[in-house]
Specification:
The chain is of the alpha+beta class and about 230 residues long. It contains six helices and 18 strands. It has a six-stranded mixed sheet with strand order 4-3-15-8-9-12. The chain is globular. Bound molecules: manganese (II) ion (MN). Manganese (II) ion (MN) binds next to strand 3.
Length: about 230
């Protein structure tokens, strides 16, 4: 028996400091509204919103490389959201926060690019967010830094510059829900598995990008991410 066409390639992320290993991605979960100051700018509820993006949107960005992100069709307001990404090496159901923390393999830096015009249109109609949140080849993620090399997550600076101008700036200390508590929450709805990755929300300062813009962002002790809108 054979496939009727070639199956899609397995999406993978590199691992910082370990060129011989790759992290295979299973699913990409996203948390909305996890920084109070960003909730204020979008007028959002206090509880975390959860959505998923298709794995084929992922663009792996090895250290020191520049990702080309295509400006998507059907949007006139395409925006950046810099985020801490957690990558799981194990999973389970109904995890305690302690069990959830033990599932984390490492952390990366990602940008949750969004068609904000469609995001708001869908949100305001009470419809699913995919037209706003899912864009082809527009989910850049850096190499994963192992959790033991990152250490304490309680106050890491997170930032994003567009054309050299600081747009987003915050600290993981401003998260309303810790990474472990978000993983525990997800595990009440889904059996988490090795390879699941989780975008954990964006700090304040989201805004639009244009073709030709150069983006550079990062998180202390995790890494930096550079992207160009094409
Ligand atoms: Mn986001």
């Amino acid at each position: 028996m054979g496939f009727i066409f070639a199956p899609p390639p397995q999406a993978v992320l590199p691992i910082a400091g370990d060129p011989d290993s790759l992290f295979p991605i299973r699913r990409v979960f996203h948390i909305g509204h996890n920084y109070a100051a960003h909730n204020k700018e979008l007028g959002a509820p206090d509880d975390p919103v959860i959505f998923l993006k298709p794995v084929d949107a992922v663009v792996a960005v090895p250290e020191g490389q520049l990702a080309d992100i295509p400006y998507p069709p059907m949007s006139e307001n395409f925006q950046h959201e810099i985020e801490l990404v957690a990558a799981l090496k194990s999973g389970g159901r109904n995890l305690t926060e302690e069990q959830a923390a033990a599932c984390i393999y490492g952390y990366a830096v990602g940008i949750d690019f969004t068609r904000r015009d469609w995001h708001f249109k869908m949100r305001d109609k009470g419809q699913p967010w995919e037209k706003g949140k899912t864009c082809d080849s527009a989910l850049p993620i850096t190499a994963i830094r192992k959790a033991e090399d990152v250490g304490d997550l309680s106050n890491l600076q997170i930032w994003l510059d567009v054309n050299g101008v600081r747009k987003q700036e915050g600290s993981t200390g401003q998260m309303m829900h810790s990474v472990a508590s978000l993983i525990a929450h997800l595990s009440m709805f889904w059996e988490l598995k090795p390879g699941d990755v989780i975008f954990t929300g964006t700090p304040r300062g989201v805004g639009p990008v244009q073709v030709g813009d150069m983006l550079s962002g990062g998180i202390d002790r995790i890494g930096t991410l550079s992207a160009r809108i094409v």
